[in-house]
Specification:
inorganic pyrophosphatase (n-terminal core); 11 helices; single chain; about 350 residues; Diaminopimelate Epimerase, Chain A, domain 1; alpha/beta; 2 domains; 14 strands; eight-stranded mixed beta sheet
């Protein structure tokens, strides 16, 4: 059966951009490149993967340029691995890319200078939807739309603007990328996101989408959840869990995605130790929560943190891995997180037990 086309007519909300359209300016900035390399943030998620793939397809179709899709760090979450494997994304580790004269580097779902990537050297274009203190000086073209819920939405708009045929696997990737960014309640999305979902859904492979959503989970997923439930403590409207060791960085996000559904809290935060780092993830169950700003405030000078209104992440590098250092850092982080997100110093275990007062070892 022939695949439905992307449609001959751009959506009405794109009509206002017809003069000097962003997609035209994006392509113009790559016209002199001999190759286009797409990069994103560490541990790329579905939004960044789908966005890179969509822009690479646009570049090949309109400019006939060779492209490379890169992977910065590992991909650990089961659904994200399933997305790569089932849709056949061809990724190369970013550190293995040897820059060539004439290369143009396009950064997607991130920005230079944020500490969320390992990319060095000049960046030609940036496409993102995050509010972040990135350094865009020297970037030839940037399109940062914080009002939009997903970078995949911006990329889908480019493809529709340019009337480029969207293959079924790519439509599936873009749709799943948007879906993951808009998941949870309250939903963070805009009219542009809904438009993109409506136009991509008929083009996507529903069976593959279901397989990705329900990817088989490794035993470590349940080990981490078990430990998180044992350590989870409720401070007013905050539930905070600590996992040591954390199997993979993305498992902190899996913990808070689970804990935020507890009916009596507005906030879920998880801290987990992996190697010489503490990985942090936060979720909010209310609108306009400012989770990124609040987690950044809690982490302070100890490390880096940021994100969206309802979703945030951070990292603290340990000066050493001694038990004493870990205890001190854990205690300081707990106090800071409870001070910013919680209510008072007395906690109640989420599962069983009685109340306790915040102490040095927590």
């Amino acid at each position: 059966m022939a695949q439905p086309s992307a449609g001959p007519t751009p959506h009405p909300h794109l009509a206002a951009r017809a003069k000097g359209r962003r997609s035209d300016r994006f392509l113009a900035g790559l016209s002199s490149a001999t190759r286009v390399v797409f990069v994103s943030h560490v541990q790329p998620d579905p939004d960044s993967l789908g966005s890179m793939w969509g822009l690479a397809h646009l570049t090949r179709e309109k400019l006939r340029k060779p492209t490379l899709l890169t992977q910065d760090g590992g991909i650990f979450r089961a659904e994200n691995r399933a997305m790569v494997e089932l849709l056949g994304l061809d990724l190369i580790q970013v550190e293995a890319v040897k820059r060539q004269p004439g290369d143009a580097v396009v950064m997607v779902d991130s920005q230079p200078g944020t500490g969320r990537h390992s990319v060095n050297g000049p960046v030609t274009a940036v496409i993102d939807h995050h509010v972040t203190p990135g350094n865009l000086s020297g970037v030839h073209f940037s399109d940062v739309q914080p009002e939009v819920g997903a970078t995949c939405t911006i990329v889908a708009d480019y493809l529709f603007e340019q009337r480029v045929h969207i293959p079924r696997p790519l439509a599936t990737a873009l749709l799943y990328g948007i879906e993951t960014e808009l998941s949870g309640f309250p939903r963070e999305g805009a009219a542009e996101d809904d438009d993109a979902v409506g136009r991509l859904y008929p083009l996507a492979d529903k069976d593959l989408l279901a397989q990705i959503r329900h990817a088989p989970l490794p035993r470590s997923h349940f080990d981490v959840l078990s430990q998180a439930l044992r350590t989870a403590a409720v401070y007013g409207k905050l539930v905070f869990a600590w996992v040591d060791p954390l199997g993979q960085p993305e498992q902190a996000a899996e913990v808070v995605d689970f804990l935020i559904r507890y009916e009596d809290v507005d906030w879920a935060v998880c801290g987990g130790v992996i190697g010489s780092k503490v990985v942090l993830s936060a979720r909010a169950a209310r609108a306009n929560a400012g989770a990124g700003e609040m987690l950044a405030q809690a982490v302070g000078h100890l490390g880096n943190a940021g994100g969206h209104e309802r979703r945030a992440g951070g990292c603290v590098v340990l000066p050493d891995c001694s038990p004493a250092t870990l205890t001190a850092v854990r205690g300081e982080l707990t106090r800071r997180i409870v001070s910013v997100f919680g209510e008072g110093r007395t906690s109640v275990p989420l599962v069983g037990g009685s109340g306790r007062t915040l102490g040095m070892a927590e």
